[in-house]
């Protein structure tokens, strides 16, 4: 483990981003393959139509999220191998890749728990749209709905002078 640095975090080089993206993609690919293999082995012995449908749906989720992350992380290189653009850093905090990785983790958890324990664990997938709504509320809807009205400084000055005149008359 690297020692903790105080102060500003250093920037990553293009080569480091490309290497970390490759290892991140490999990790999440292996997670998806492992969950799928385990679920498929259990599905062979216990195959209900809903289980088969949800297994195929989870395969589609894995494929689409992995392809999306691979597209985001695609590096552009010159003919002689120099990196022009490293692609999006998949390990950046607060980025879209963080949410895509969460979908892969949630899908793997749902798939493993439902294949080992009970099909009711597929209901955990409802956490994804709930989180999506929460993020939309927190970042888009709430600030838009509850923003304060713009204050006109000229109107404020007029009101202040009017109040001062009113106060002088009362005294």
Automatic annotation (TrEMBL):
<dbReference type="GO" id="GO:0005789">
    <property type="term" value="C:endoplasmic reticulum membrane"/>
</dbReference>
<protein>
    <recommendedName>
        <fullName>Transmembrane protein 208</fullName>
    </recommendedName>
</protein>
<keyword id="KW-0256">Endoplasmic reticulum</keyword>
<keyword id="KW-0472">Membrane</keyword>
<dbReference type="GO" id="GO:0006624">
    <property type="term" value="P:vacuolar protein processing"/>
</dbReference>
<feature type="transmembrane region" description="Helical">
    <location>
        <begin position="103"/>
        <end position="128"/>
    </location>
</feature>
<comment type="similarity">
    <text>Belongs to the TMEM208 family.</text>
</comment>
<keyword id="KW-1133">Transmembrane helix</keyword>
<feature type="transmembrane region" description="Helical">
    <location>
        <begin position="52"/>
        <end position="73"/>
    </location>
</feature>
<dbReference type="InterPro" id="IPR008506">
    <property type="entry name" value="SND2/TMEM208"/>
</dbReference>
<keyword id="KW-0812">Transmembrane</keyword>
<dbReference type="Pfam" id="PF05620">
    <property type="entry name" value="TMEM208_SND2"/>
</dbReference>
<dbReference type="GO" id="GO:0005773">
    <property type="term" value="C:vacuole"/>
</dbReference>
């Amino acid at each position: 483990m690297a020692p903790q640095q105080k102060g500003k975090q250093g920037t990553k080089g293009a080569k480091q981003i490309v290497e970390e993206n490759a290892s991140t993609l490999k990790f999440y690919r292996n997670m998806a393959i492992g969950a799928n293999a385990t679920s498929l082995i259990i599905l062979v012995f216990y195959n209900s139509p809903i289980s088969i449908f949800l297994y195929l749906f989870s395969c589609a989720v894995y494929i689409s999220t992995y392809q999306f992350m691979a597209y985001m992380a695609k590096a552009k290189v010159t003919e002689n191998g120099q990196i022009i653009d490293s692609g999006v850093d998949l390990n950046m905090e607060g980025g879209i890749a963080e949410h895509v990785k969460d979908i892969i983790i949630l899908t793997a958890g749902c798939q493993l728990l439902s294949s080992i324990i009970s099909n009711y664990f597929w209901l955990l997938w409802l956490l994804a749209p709930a989180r999506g709504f929460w993020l939309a509320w927190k970042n888009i809807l709430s600030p838009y709905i509850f923003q304060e009205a713009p204050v006109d400084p000229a109107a404020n000055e007029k009101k202040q002078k009017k109040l001062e005149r009113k106060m002088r008359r009362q005294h």
